[in-house]
Amino acid sequence: MSKKLLGLVLLSILLLHQAGNAQTSMINVYGRNSTILNGQWETIIDPFDVGIGWRAIYKDAKATGKTDFVEYSFEPANTLRVPGDFNSQLPELTYFESSVWYKKTFDVVPGKNERLFIHFGAVNYVADVYFNGKKLGRHEGGFTPFEFEVTDLVKEKDNSLIIRANSSRVKNGIPGSLFDWFNYGGITRDVHLVRTHRVFIDDYKIQLDPNDKGRITGYARLNSELAGKQIAVDIPELKIREKITTDSKGYAAISLKRNIKLWTPEQPKLYPIKLSIEGDSISDRIGFRTIKVNGSKILLNGKPVFLRGVNIHEEIPQKKARAYSEADAAVLMGWAKELGCNFVRLVHYPHNEYEIKLAEEKGLMVWEEIPVYQGIEFADPTVKDKAELMLKEVIKRDKNRCNVILWSIANETGPSKERDKTLIELAKEVKLLDPTRLVTAAFNNVSHHDGKMELKDSVMKYVDVIGVNEYMGWYTDWPSDPEKVEWLSQFNKPMIISEFGGEAVYNNKIDSAVKASAWSEEYMANIYIKQLKMFKTIPFLQGVCPWVLADFRSPYRMQSTYQKGWNRKGLLSDQGDKKKAWYIMKAWYEQLKN
Ligand code: GCU
User: Fold this and answer.
1) How far does residue 325's CA lie from ligand 1's centre (Å)?
2) CATH 3.20.20.80 is held by the domain 303-593
3) Chain centroid to CA 196: how far?
4) Could you report the per-residue pLDDT of 66-108, keeping only the tens digit for each?
């Protein structure tokens, strides 16, 4: 094959790949010239998923005359709210795990010299996207953003955007087919129509130089490899109106000395910034801080910090629904602040941007995690690629959120040759994508023998901070008196107890004396009292995260008296009532603050 032909073939493969699967989407659509497409979208419920096959729902057929018969047509009367999981919107969809088809029609007045993108905050689990009858592509992964360009397809009136959202659990998915949370499906986050100029800023990172608290460093990168383009960087409070120029890769670096007020949980200072090129501008708010480890300490701005955390699922229990809005974020982060936290572990998947941004405003550091959760098909070669893409998507999206301090690559995966190899590669990938933050994972295989808890998992060597999930008093008995449990680590690294706790039904009065009387509040409170006694004895412990902020829904939890489809380990009930363990945790965090 001639060189020219080979080049053409390779180029077409690349373009096909990009067209078929969205490359990672542009950063910060909320700060751009964008229109939100939320609202009531027409829907067709497709339990047998025939719409992508012979029913061809994407063709959007309509009956024209009296004799036509079209069985699967979108009708104005049948709608669901976007964003929002479909399970909580119709009783018949409660345990539904297949396809719902969505359709949104809208007009667009295209500007001159403009590009248009449809950007999805998340669709769980697979999305097939069609625009004006053309297939734009597919995205797999229920918790990370993606987008497709529609510049050349858009028309002034009645643009038709159709999505197949399929929430089936898949064996070689991320997560796999079994997980302890509710499988909320659908278009679960905001959808934007984003307008940019022909040449625009696709990506940027602005942060404190990890080695110089008086220097702001970072970069801006264009969507195309154009040299000589001027990008304006404005940070008014720091008297910065800098012009930086792109190189042949469309990349421009930023490095500026300034006297900066650092972000801390107590004083979460954020600076409004604006990046612009030829009138196309992006606004954001940036906090400046450093995060490092030193031996078994975690250092925030050079000082040791103890993480007073809590685990949070992306769910509002009273609504029995996926959290998706600013108001929902305010509920969850408000509870965390009320508990006395300076840290939240957002489990087990990337949460929506409202939560991360509100946590940043409220002074809550964040552990973000991709759902490499328990039973993952590590032997399947596509699994690592899917996990890597999710890492790329979430790190690109949140790398300007200074409160994100930990990227977690896994939760409770069992050691094996394939698992070790995959996690080691993911840990290295995190460091390549973002060398300024810490990489972690949650392990539940701490070997315990004769009262000793020993950290020995070989993958722990490749993370900066070791997360340990342990349920002494619930899933396992206490190996000895809590104060006498000996924790041993061959790694000179910080450890976070990333999960601990037990279940109780709020206000459950049953006898707390006997283990069989689990699900009593006293029994759960007793676990917490013992855990806190043990924590005081662990020299390399740098943070704790009770499992879990609030009772949450899970098809795993069907014990018919106390659970009924809920995991009852919440410090709060499914109505937001505070259990006894809440007050124990809050009091402990209070005394830690002083
Ligand atoms: C595990 C897991 C959680 C789960 C919890 C539990 O450690 O990480 O996702 O909900 O324990 O069993 O309640």
Assistant:
1) 25
2) yes
3) 26
4) 888 888 899 998 999 999 999 999 999 999 999 999 999 999 9
